[in-house]
Amino acid sequence: MRHIITLATLGLMAACGSAGKDQPTQRQEIGQNWKYEGGSGAKAKLAYIGSANSVRTMTAPDTFSVLLVQPMDNGEKVVTVKLVGAPFQCDLSACAVTATDDVGATHRWQGRMTDARDGIEILPSQKAYETIAGARMVKVDLMVGPKDATAPFRFNVAGLSLKG
């Protein structure tokens, strides 16, 4: 039940995707730069960033992804990849996503589907945080439609400040 309020807020924002003309969209609210909750930088309890791109899907014209990084008490970091605007899909027997960093190295991160069923929680043993912290850009391929249709979501991850 980690940061259930934050996750619920993201879910509510997704459900209320039709913002008024003077109200920012959910994608604009999340932004494409790191944001911190529960403190700032090294003392934050959660960092998150939205993808630099969005894709049109059957369920939303502006489907995007969010990366969340949560420090644990032992200093390790849990990474969660969420999909906003389309249902998150993965093989429940081996839930995984593929990521590529800015030097072209490909990583397969396995984890478990989030309780809200909108993303995948990747444990520290998968080294997702180390990839994100050591890169300027990370691309994550996510299923966004029928017949295993995937889309690459790019994150400009430079500047993440979670130490410890």
Could you explain the architecture of this structure?
The chain has 3 helices and 10 strands. By secondary structure, the protein is of the alpha+beta class. The chain has one domain: Immunoglobulin-like (Sandwich). The strands form 2 sheets. The protein has a 6-stranded antiparallel β-sheet with strand order 1-2-3-4-8-7, covered by helices on one side. It has a 4-stranded antiparallel β-sheet with strand order 6-5-9-10. A hairpin with a 6-residue loop joins strand 9 (138-143) and strand 10.
Short description:
14% of the residues lie in helices and 32% in strands. The chain has helices at 4-15, 26-30, 128-133, and strands at residues 35-37, 46-50, 64-71, 77-84, 96-101, 106-110, 112-113, 119-122, 138-143, 150-155. Strand 7 and strand 8 (119-122) form a beta hairpin.
**Strand order in space, largest sheet:** 1-2-3-4-8-7
Q: Which range best describes the helical content: under 10%, 10-25%, 25-40%, 40-55%, 55-70% or over 70%?
A: 10-25%
Q: Would you identify the CATH H-level superfamily?
A: Invasion associated locus B (IalB) protein
Low-confidence stretches are 3-9, 12-19
CATH overall fold name: Immunoglobulin-like
Q: Write down the overall geometry.
A: globular
Q: Average pLDDT, to the nearest integer?
A: 85
CATH C-level label = Mainly Beta
| Percentage of β-strand residues | 25-35%
Distance between the termini: 22 Å
Annotation field: number of helices: 3
Q: Rg to the nearest angstrom?
A: 15 Å
Structural class: alpha+beta
| Oligomeric composition of the shown chains | single chain
Biggest sheet details? 6 strands, antiparallel
CATH architecture: Sandwich
Number of strands: 10
Domain module tally: 1
